[in-house]
Structure formats: C-alpha cells, structure tokens
Amino acid sequence: MLLATSAGHAGNPSAAAGQTPATEANAKTQAGAKAQAQSQEAPKPQSEEAAEQPATPAQAGAKAQTQAQKGTTEGLPKAQNIDLQEPIQGAELVAPDGTTADAAPAVEATPDDLVGAQPFVLLGREVPPATSTRLAWAPSQSFEGIYAATPVLVVHGKKPGPVLCLTAAIHGDELNGIETVRRVLYNLDPNKLAGTVVGVPIVNLQGFHRHSRYLSDRRDLNRFFPGDPDGSSASRIAHSFFHEVISHCDALVDLHTGSYYRTNLPQLRADLTNPGVVALTKGFGATVVLHSEGAEGTLRRAAVNQGIPAVTLEAGASMLLDETSVEHSSKAIQTLLNHMEMVSKFRLWGDPEPVYYTSTWQRAPMGGVIFSEVALGESVSKGDLLGTITNPITNVRTEIHSAYDGRVLGMALNQFVQPGFAAYHIGIRAPEEKVPAPAAAADSNASGQVSPAAEPLPDTEVPSDEQPDAPDSGDDAFEDG
Ligand SMILES: [Zn+2]
Fold first, then answer.
1. How far is ligand 1, taken at its centre, from the CA of residue 38, in Å?
2. For 96, what's the count of Cα atoms within 13 Å in the CB-facing half-sphere?
3. Is the pLDDT of residue 427 over 50?
4. CA of 256 to the centre of ligand 1 (A)
5. How far is the CA of 169 from the centre of ligand 1 (A)?
6. Do residues 135 and 221 touch, judged by C-beta distance below 8 A?
7. Which segment, 38-52, 127-141, 337-351, 399-413, is predicted with the most confidence on average?
8. Minimal CB count within 10 Å: which of 136, 278, 320, 468?
9. What is the tens place of the pLDDT at every residue in 73-99?
10. Do the domain assignments include residue 473?
C-alpha cells in the first residue's frame, strides 16, 4: 500500500449530539424540493415575485447563468466595490439575499481604463473589473426559510486572466485555511490583478459553528462532490456549491489540515496522472507534493473530473491555528499567483522546484500514550526511532521505527492512541514522473514494528448516502485530511 488513494468514512457520532437527523432531513428535503422548483422557474426574466422578494443566491445564480449564456449580464445587480482590508464594524456581514450589508458606495472604475475588461458574474452579482467584493452563497432554503449564507470573497482584476478559487473549512474544524484565505485575498489589489481570485474561507459553516469536521447530519461534505440536487442534504449542499461557485473556477486550491489530532507538513495532494494538475503543482514554490487521486466525492477529485485542475493544500492540524502552516500556505498561494501571471510584484520564493513523494503510514502496534522522537518534516532513515507508545496500565513500552528512508510528512500529536492508529506518514521521495506508479520499494514488508504496507487498503467504499451512522473507518489520514 503506497499511494494515498483510499476512501473515507462517514460520521463522527459525537458530532451530532442534540440533532434529530431524520426530522431535519425531511424538513430539508421539503425545503430543497421547494428551492429546486423555484430555481427551475428562475431563468425567466425578473418575475413579480422575484421583484418582491430578495432572490436566494441559488435563484440569482441560475439567472446569472442564463444571462451569461445569452452573452449579457443586463439587469444583474452590481456587486459593491469594497476594500476587503477595511474591517466591517457592527453591521451584519452578509444579508440573506446575498448582498453585503456594508453600505460602502460602489466606486465605478474609469471606463477608459477598462476597455476590454469584462465583469465577473458570480452568485447573481456582476462584479465590475478592478473591484473587490463580498458575496454570499447559500445552498438552499432550510425549513426556517433562510439558510445561513457563506461569505464568498471576490477580487476581480483590472486585466483579464484566469479564475483561481481558494476554498477552506470544508471540514469545519480546520482553521489554518480560513486564515490563509483571508491573508491572500485581503492583500490583493484588484487594480494590479490579472484575472479573478475567489476565496471561500468557511465552506462548511454548519461544522465550523460546532467545531466539527462534519455537517450537522454527520456527513463529511468532502465525500459528496459534485453532488446531486435530488440527493441527501450533504449531496444537495455539495451540488449547490459546486455549480454556483466551483464551476466558475479555472483552477482550485482546497485547503485542509490533518485530521484526528494529526498534523501535516504543508503539502499538496495532487493527482499526478493528470497533466493539468501536475502543471498546477509547479506553482507553489518549495511545497512538497504527494500523489493521491483523492477519494471519490472529494471536491478536488470532482473538480479535476470536470476539467478544473485542482489540488488540496494540507497544512497543520485541525482545531489549531499555527503560524508556520498559515505562513507557508499564504506564501505558496502568492507564489502560485505569480506563477499564473496573475500578479507581478509578489515576493518570489526563489522559485524552487516542488519535491514529489509517494508515502506510507506507520501505525501504532499497540494502544497507549504516544510520544514522538521526530519532528514534522524531519528526514528519517530506515530504522530510526519515530516515537514510543507506553501502555499506562501495564507500563509496557513499544517503539515505532521508520520502515523506510523518507521524510515525516504527517504525524500524530502526542495523545492516547488505539492499536492500528496511523501515527507517522512517511514520504518517500520519487521523481515526479515516477510518483503515480506503485513504487515497489515501499510495498515490501518492512522491518519496523508496524507494517503499514502489508495492510490491505482500508475500505475504499465511500460511506453510503443512506448510512450517516457508518462508523469512522479510522483511515481518514489516507485521504485529504
Ligand atoms: Zn479536511
């Protein structure tokens, strides 16, 4: 077992305390059906009903798409031009109809200056060239009538160029990406940008509010893309986000962290069998790249399947904000903007080549308290001591030694682990062109006390839509964290 290509898991039972999933699902089904019916009507011109009520972003988006297909954005409300760095005082951030409550007057760009530049249409708003704005995406109306809207930041450059999308907190407990998106977006000058950067700092607002990786129905949103408008709640949310936002992207960076008290060295997860994805990985400066197709249902994989080059940028651990990870991620994305020729003046990162890896996991052979002897990112040789596990009851101590020459790309934080816990993620360096092929070197059973390579791949079935209570496979670490 080499490549990180296995599957996920469904629920964290503790994540749904107090929820009544069946009732909620029913309510959402009804609300969703209603929203769908409405959105089917949406393509017709502004109806009286639409004039009376603020359009939901889904309705407005459908209109925008229809209008865009007609080659006109006539009639779309213009997004306000906002200085994203300017803090919002007091007022509600995002109104349910997708507008920002901030009442800053729109600053019209000089027409002469912008000949040839096109407005960017997203979520039912027209963003003029050389402006920044906050929009809102809401998957559908919940039974209360209003779904909490997720802020979507847009910086639309003065010059034409690609649309780069940055998404974070699809897992609601992963915080580093939120701050990374803020730093990148708030430091962009639309007057100096070629193309468009769309940043969604918190995709899974439901999980974020509960400090949970999951949606409120205990499903992992990152297993449901590209979604289904008639499917489960998670599937509908995924479908809405994919079609309202992601389908407008030319490239995607989805930000994640390690899961379950594991931390990751900043790294890209990328399907290196895809040339467009490989090209994208070369833009992140000195960021290591781990080959992985991505589990079925991940946003990254769904985007790649739709022809949008996408990578996951993993950095740090869940529930922690660490400056090292945020700094690296921000720098990596700024380097990417430079590489994509969207900005010209960002500090360059010396433009070092990425380093490609295959990888394997070293597991805990027994349960107990794990303490590490290595640091994240450290190079290790076969036989090196990675850490120890001590049973607090029997006082039996076991050592975990590296089975390979490699580098620690991810590792457990010190904690109590169960036998079989994936504790150390060892990257094995390989030339880019060889990474996707199974590397024989790492498949042999190693001499370490654990033998991750000998284990079969964890259950690769994506948890069924119908089984929100499916037990956690425990092998999430194989996946995008
Ligand atoms: Zn994640």
1. 32
2. 12
3. yes
4. 4
5. 7
6. no
7. 399-413
8. 320
9. 567 889 889 888 888 765 445 544 444
10. no
418 CA distance to ligand 1 centroid (A)? 22
User: What is the rounded distance in angstroms from the CA atom of residue 273 to the CA atom of residue 253?
Assistant: 17
Does this model's pTM top 0.85? Answer: no
Q: Has residue 390 been placed in a domain?
A: no
CA dist 260 and 412 (Å) reads 8
What tens digit of pLDDT does each residue of 260-276 get? 899 999 999 999 999 99
| Cβ atoms of residues 410 and 258 within 8 Å | yes
Please give the tally of structural domains in the chain. Answer: 1
Residue 125 CA, ligand 1 centroid: distance in Å: 29
In-domain check, residue 227: yes
Say if residue 473's pLDDT is above 50.
Answer: no
CA of 49 to the centre of ligand 1 (A): 40
Both ends of the chain: CA-CA distance in Å? Answer: 18
Spacing, Cα 57 to ligand 1 middle (Å): 25
What range does the domain containing 94 cover? 54-339
Contact call for residues 212 and 293 (beta carbons, < 8 A): no
Three-class secondary structure of residue 388 per DSSP: strand
Please tell me which residue, 328 or 345, carries the higher pLDDT value. Answer: 328
> Ligand 1 centroid to 102 CA: how many Å?
31
Q: How much distance in Å is there from the Cα of 84 to the middle of ligand 1?
A: 26
* Residue entry with tokens 């209008």: 67
Cα 33 to Cα 317: distance, rounded to the nearest angstrom: 37
> How far, in Å, is the centroid of ligand 1 from the Cα of 416?
22
Which CATH number covers residue 152? 3.40.630.10
Q: 116: buried, middle or exposed (CB in 10 Å: 19+, 13-18, 0-12)?
A: exposed
Q: Is 347 within the bounds of a domain?
A: no
CA 211–ligand 1 middle distance (angstroms): 13
**344 contacts: CB under 8 Å, gap ≥ 6:** 192, 338
- Residue type for position 382: K
Cβ 8 vs Cβ 459: under 8 Å = no
Determine the distance separating the centroid of ligand 1 and the alpha carbon of 213, expressed in angstroms: 7
Question: What distance in angstroms lies between residue 386's CA and the mean position of ligand 1's atoms?
Answer: 25
DSSP labels, 345-375: -SPP---PPP-EEEEEEEE-SS-EEEEESS-
Cβ 123 vs Cβ 73: under 8 Å: no
Tell me how far the alpha carbon of residue 171 lies from the centroid of ligand 1, in angstroms: 5
- Statement: residue 46 has pLDDT above 70: no
State the pLDDT at residue 117. 78
- How many other β-carbons are positioned within 10 Å of the β-carbon of residue 433? 10
Yes or no: say if 338 and 161 are a contact pair by the CB < 8 Å rule.
Answer: no
